[in-house]
User: Fold this.
Amino acid sequence: MSALVREREHTEAEWVDEFLADLGRREQVISDVQGALARNPENVANFRRQPDLWIDAFCHGLDFEAQPVPREFHVSLWPWQGRYVRHLAGIESYNASTPFTLVDGRQRYIELKARGVGATWTNIWFACWALWAMAPAQILLMSDVETKAIDLLSRVDYVVRHLPPSLGLEYQKGGDSKLSKVFTNGSEIHSLSGNPERIRSYHPYLTLIDEVAQLQADPTAAILGLSGIVVLLSTAQGYGNPFERIWTDAADNGGKRYGFVPIFLSWREIPHLTSRPLGDPRLQKQEYPNDATEAFLTSGRPYFDLNACEELRQRHVREPIETRDNGQLRIFERPEAGQVYILAADVAEGKQAEEAGGDPEDEHGGPDYSYCVARKWDRPGEEVASWHGRLPEIPFAHVLFALWKEYPGIIVPERNNSGAVVAIRLQELYPSCVYYDPSDGRPGWITTAESRATMLQALYETITHRELVARDVAFWNEMRRFRVQDTGKAEAGPGDHDDRVIAWAISQYLRQFPALRPTLTMIPGGGAQPQSLPPQGPPVAAWEKHLYNRYGGTR
Assistant:
């Protein structure tokens, strides 16, 4: 071996020794300072009130982005992290638009995070502070699978084992396991996975559920019963999951349904980043989104072009000029003389509340809805009115007939299952008001696997070309959640509905055929004189028994 090589190796070895010695000296200094801070009574009082000071003074973490092994570091909170933990402790608001609480005095937060922003660690550090400062405190962690639940608690263990002994946060004998930690000061922390219903047996000071969008079961019912601070944390995983629904309610509806405060943690909160890291554009937007909309648009498996949907939503959505039937009927434009309309309807399948589950007032779950959209037949086919609610088939048929008298043209009810009852009733009310399937001459649209794919494709192309004019924001919300499922079928996910999507797809497909366009001569009085319509068939009561016996359905 040459002398030069030996000299270089000796120099490198000396450098390593010096580095380790210097690192040891710095760790000892930090330990001495921490010990002095922890023993000072005045400091102890401040630390119990201010988690940011405690975390900066005592906490460590691991940088899992470092290669080839995670890098240990002593915490120095970033600006957003300091504001956030002070907010959780009730010291000051995170920002001007983030209230401490919305309902019942409970602190509930839903956090949409960018990659590398340190949100999970920040909540872990706050949890460790609470175990010490709020003793005896119960902390609850949760993730979708056990390996992730173990990882969450291992982070807590890492922080605790690096605290100065003088703080006194020590495990009880036998109180240290993979999924539970019990401390001598009476505090305890547990990490769960799987079914969120397990949460109900706890009464924690803080509940942290990580990667909520990946949970297999909907945690909504369980978490709404919790007291204390509740934090839901996740990256975006597309539309149509519980995390997205709670986020949308918090961000767009003021948290009126679930009571959560939204906090969006952008990549701009990472101090050393001045621009998004380079890479695949779609993945870049998903992992380092500029805003919440971008995060959801670029994740998941949506059927429709969500960027196009967002453009059309912003361009065309408006408030109705009138509502009726307790808000179920929404009018966006008055009828125009000489205009022809198409009224497409998706009829509820007839599930009862005990079959479908969920809150009957909540569109995300519960019994199915019936829906009708009224559109102008001629391009661009603007939405002029819509009805959305729950009614038995016969009354719903009369709702459609009344709407047709205002917006004359043709009614196209989907006749699958109990929809046949609606179609037959419309035929009895007035034969020319309803669409007849050319394949069998019966009233109503029949959806098969083939026709479903064709009508959805028609809607897809219209959206892609930015030609759809839908006024109701609820339609666009459904479009976001209409996804390609693991089975390969495009439909709404569990707990969601797609009645609006189906009705719009039917109307869009049929509007492609000029020969189907109804003429006003088919409509008595051109639709202008409702009183000129013929009698509305036999009384409803006389027909109900016959129709239910023949076609089934629900009362």
Remarks:
- The chain has three domains: 1-39, 47-297, 306-546.
- Confidence is low (pLDDT under 50) at residues 1-10, 350-366, 524-555.
- The first helix runs from residue 3 to 39.
